[in-house]
Amino acid sequence: MPATELLDELRSIQALLGTGAGRPRPEAANPASFAALQHASEEEEDAPRARKSAQVQELERTVASLRHNCQARDEQRFELEAALAAARRDGEVAVGRLQGELSSKQEECGQLASMILQQQQELEALQSNLQHNAQQAEESGKATTASISQLQQAAAEWRRQGEDSLEALTAERRRSAALQQRLYQQTQALQAEVAEQRQQRQSAEAELAKLRAAMEGCAGDQASLVAELRRRLSLERSWRKAVGRWLRGEVHTRGELERVLLNVGAAVRCGPGEQPLGCPEGRSRWGQQQAAAPALPPRRMAGAQQVPDATVHVEDTPLANDGAGGVRITVRSPRAHTISVSSTVEASSGSPGHVHGGSTAKAAPNTSWRQHFQATMKAFDERNKSAEQHAARGPLRCYMMRKHGRLPARLSVLSGSQPAAKPEATAAAAMSTLTKRDLLEGVARLVPDLAPTKYKGQAGKIAVIGGSREYTGAPFFAAMAALKIGADLSHVFCTEGAATVIKGYSPELIVHPYLPDARDGGSAAELRQRAVEAIEPWLDRFDAVLVGPGLGRDPLVLDTVAEVMRAVRRRCLPMVVDADGLWLVNQHPSLVSGYPNAVLTPNKVEFQRLADKLGVAADNQSALQDICRSLDGPVIVRKGAADAVADGGCVVECDEEGSPRRAGGQGDVLSGCIATYAAWAQRAGGARKEQLHAGDSGAGGDAGLPPLMLAAYAGCLTTRRASQRAFAKQRRSMGATDLLAELGAVADELADELPSEGR
Ligand SMILES: NC(=O)C1=CN([C@@H]2O[C@H](COP(=O)(O)OP(=O)(O)OC[C@H]3O[C@@H](n4cnc5c(N)ncnc54)[C@H](O)[C@@H]3O)[C@@H](O)[C@H]2O)[C@@H](O)CC1
Ligand SMILES: Nc1ncnc2c1ncn2[C@@H]1O[C@H](COP(=O)(O)OP(=O)(O)OP(=O)(O)O)[C@@H](O)[C@H]1O
Question: What ipTM is given for this predicted complex?
Answer without folding.
Answer: 0.88
